[in-house]
Design a protein that fits this description.
The chain is an alpha/beta fold. Helix content is 28%, strand content 27%. The chain is built from 20 helices and 38 strands. Helix 14 links the parallel strand 17 and strand 18 (437-446). Helix 1 (3-10) packs across helix 19, helix 3 (62-74) runs parallel beside helix 4 (95-110) and helix 14 (420-431) packs parallel to helix 15 (462-476).
Length: 717
């Protein structure tokens, strides 16, 4: 088979991103001119602006709503995110609740403000304020759990009648943690224990929920009394929408896409002592994988599974994460798109992917049909001195899947409260990694008694920080991303418990950013639904072209991804395998995986380091500094007639370097603090690049535009 025919078979047709209506430009990628961007730079449209968490506690009256909105407006805040709190005068999801929302939306509209609606009465999303437990218990979250534990001595015979919900049994030798699955046919377990100290686990499916913090919980704590929905069942998600989104539509639907920007989800996940389950999953599994999962289910609880058992578990993870994507996230994303609003959500554990794959399956699958992919930063996860590059996951999802914006919830539970300057650092750290929609949660506004502008939110310099954030996120949402390097994300290896693959990916991410080589992650989901071969480039749904793909050290890769990477290499792209090469090539199932693959078509670097040989395989850099400078990070986006570069000095020391930037035309500095545009000093152009002296103060930022000069802005030519 020729490479040309191979390409035609394995590269899917281009899937175009949904284009929002012209009156909702923030919902779609566009190619604005510098003049069009400059027209709104000083005072950006509110849709792009920073939002604050507006938590409603106590009696929410028209007086309280007006008081709070006026206070927000005085700080320069033009967007609020409404969340139900405790002690409400109108209970959550009651007619009175929706009437209060209608009043708040009307008052926000009067002030030219915008509103995001939190889709739950606290968190995580998906329990509808307790309605699943109270009204539809059949649609509650379910899981595979250890239903019973039985001690069995050596030589003893265990005879046990099994409940209908039993799906398997596992005997674990507590002396060495070795295990064996047991036969559970005909509704009975009969087993004689050999030598050892044995415990038999009876595995069952059961209604089991992640803990929820609910507005109707009198303890105000987290427990499982208000069950989440069965995320893997589309009927449950449709019921969730009927209780929430469709009711909001009745009351404020005329403002959808106008004053009401969309729905904000929070941490849907399986934080359970068990494994996700839904009544249809064994049928779905057999249809997708071609074999029965039930003989393996008990082994999913084994402390040391065999390789065969671990592969079956990875197949199960593949199936349930597909169901999570399609039956929870996609149902909501499609509903929002059909109704002129956006679905914005972040998951749990984005800073620790080994935990995330346990509770949410696959970050990139989950974000595939979400209009605004997100992350959150809590517990000072992002802070000066820490390496925390995980915002790249959300921005990569946005870029690959053709979304103009990526979201952050910031400052909840920061145990070292930031100053205004520290808060700016945390914001900029995320902006330079591709985040361009900011939500502040450091102190939630308390509507029942007072507006909660405490700490740095009450600082006299906070309004200036808001103005900066509004301009910065507006600029960073314009045009299209420009990184030419992709990094394959090894989610299949993580399903196999490969912590070394996770560590290698984190190390590669840090090395690239510290060398000013920007990139996006591409996942198995991207290969399946979002990437096309365009000459010697892989093109994503943003229209962005990757000229090189780096594969971090890993244990497994799909046949689909491997074939498409080979086709990419044969068409002129560069593929580099760093360190440990895959030993498994996964097709329809992990059980039937082959490998190791022949990789003579790729660059192979056994050291796993970014050696000169690896650097040579990468496309020419769009930013070159005269000396190494790890603290300086950058982001590059392209407009119709200009290139935007954003630089951030993450260190407390001033940095000054000679820099060469790809681009043609005059060089301008767009000051996001002042909202002004002026010429860059000491800039010179030639041969498709511009050269300038890049000077950054401690923790300083700079927006540099290369290209057309907007009317009214002076720039040296």
């Amino acid at each position: 088979m020729t490479s040309r025919s191979l390409v035609s078979l394995i590269i899917p047709p281009l899937i175009t991103a949904t284009v929002a209506a012209a009156e909702h430009p923030w919902q779609a990628l566009a190619d604005p001119s510098a003049a069009e961007v400059a027209a709104h730079f000083s005072t950006p449209p509110p849709e792009y602006g920073l939002t604050v968490w507006w938590g409603w506690d106590g009696a929410i009256t028209e007086e309280v709503i007006n008081r709070d909105l006026d206070a927000f407006h005085a700080k320069g805040i033009r967007v609020v995110t409404i969340e139900a709190g405790y002690g409400l005068s109108a209970s959550y999801l009651s007619p009175g609740w929706f009437e209060t929302i209608k009043l708040a939306v009307a008052q926000a509209k009067r002030r030219g403000m915008r509103v995001w609606l939190v889709d739950e009465g606290k968190y995580p999303s998906g329990f509808a304020g307790g309605k699943f437990s109270a009204e539809r218990p059949d649609l509650r979250m379910q899981a595979l759990v250890v239903g019973e534990r039985v001690e069995v001595a050596a030589g003893e015979t265990l005879i046990r009648k099994l409940a209908p919900e039993t799906v398997g049994a596992l005997a674990v030798n507590q002396a060495d943690n070795r295990s064996r699955t047991l036969v559970t046919g005909a509704g009975e377990l009969r087993w004689t224990a050999p030598e050892g100290k044995w415990e038999v686990l009876i595995i069952q499916h059961a209604f089991r929920s992640s803990p929820t913090r609910a507005v109707n919980n009198p303890t105000r704590g987290k427990d499982d009394k208000n069950s989440l929905e069965d995320y893997l069942n589309p009927a449950a998600t449709r019921q969730f929408l009927a209780w929430t989104h469709e009711q909001y539509q009745k009351y404020v639907g005329a403002e959808f896409g106008e004053t009401v920007l969309g729905f904000r989800g929070d941490e849907p996940d399986y934080s359970i002592n068990g494994i996700p389950w839904t009544p249809a999953i064994f049928t779905e599994f057999e249809q997708r994988k071609g074999y029965d999962a039930r003989p393996y289910v008990a082994s999913f609880f084994a402390p040391h599974p065999t390789e065969e058992q671990q592969r079956a578990k990875a197949d199960y993870w593949d199936v349930w994460s597909d169901l999570f994507r399609d039956n929870f996230f996609r149902v909501q994303g499609d509903w929002c798109a059909a109704n002129g609003v956006e679905y914005l959500v972040h998951l749990n554990h984005e800073d620790d992917m080994m935990k995330l794959v346990h509770s949410e399956g696959d970050f990139f699958k989950d974000m595939r049909y979400v209009e605004v992919p997100g992350i959150d930063t809590i517990w000072n996860q992002i802070w000066p001195g820490k390496v925390s590059d995980f915002p790249k996951y959300a921005s990569s999802a946005a870029h690959v899947f053709g979304r103009p914006r990526a979201f952050t919830e910031s400052f909840a539970a920061y145990r070292t409260p930031p100053t205004v300057d520290q808060a700016r650092w945390v914001m900029n750290q995320q902006y330079v990694r591709g985040i361009n929609l900011q939500e502040i949660m450091f102190v939630m506004a308390s509507s029942g008694g007072r507006t909660g502008f405490r700490g740095w939110l009450g600082d006299e310099n906070f309004p200036a920080a808001v103005a900066y954030a509004n301009r910065a996120t507006y600029l960073l949402a314009q045009g299209r991303p420009a990184a030419g390097i992709a990094v394959y994300y090894p989610n299949l290896s993580l399903w196999l418990g490969d912590a070394a693959a996770d560590a290698g990916t984190l190390a590669l991410m840090q090395q690239l950013l510290e060398r000013q080589r920007d990139f996006d992650f591409i996942s198995e989901e991207a290969f399946a639904t979002a990437l096309t071969l365009d000459g010697g480039a892989l093109k994503n749904l943003s229209g962005q072209s990757y000229r090189a793909v780096l594969v971090p050290p890993l244990g497994a890769i799909s046949r689909l991804a491997l074939d498409r990477l080979q086709a990419f290499a044969e068409a002129g792209g560069r593929v580099v395998f760093l360190g440990r090469e895959p030993s498994l090539v996964v097709g329809k199932t992990f059980q039937q995986a082959g490998g190791p693959p022949e990789l003579d078509w790729a660059v192979r670097e056994p050291s796993g380091e970014l050696t000169p040989r690896v650097i040579e395989a990468l496309p020419p850099p769009d930013v070159v500094l005269d000396q190494p400078c790890p603290p300086v990070k950058y982001l590059h986006r392209r407009w119709q007639d200009a290139d935007l570069y954003f630089f951030f000095n993450e260190s407390g020391q001033p940095q000054a370097r000679q820099a060469a930037l790809t681009g043609v035309g005059p060089v301008q500095v767009w000051d996001a603090n002042a909202g002004t545009i002026g010429p860059a000093d000491n800039a010179a152009a030639g041969n498709g690049t511009v050269r300038l002296r890049l000077e950054l103060e401690p923790y300083g930022t700079k927006f540099i535009v290369v290209g057309a000069v907007p009317p009214g802005a002076a720039a040296k030519r």
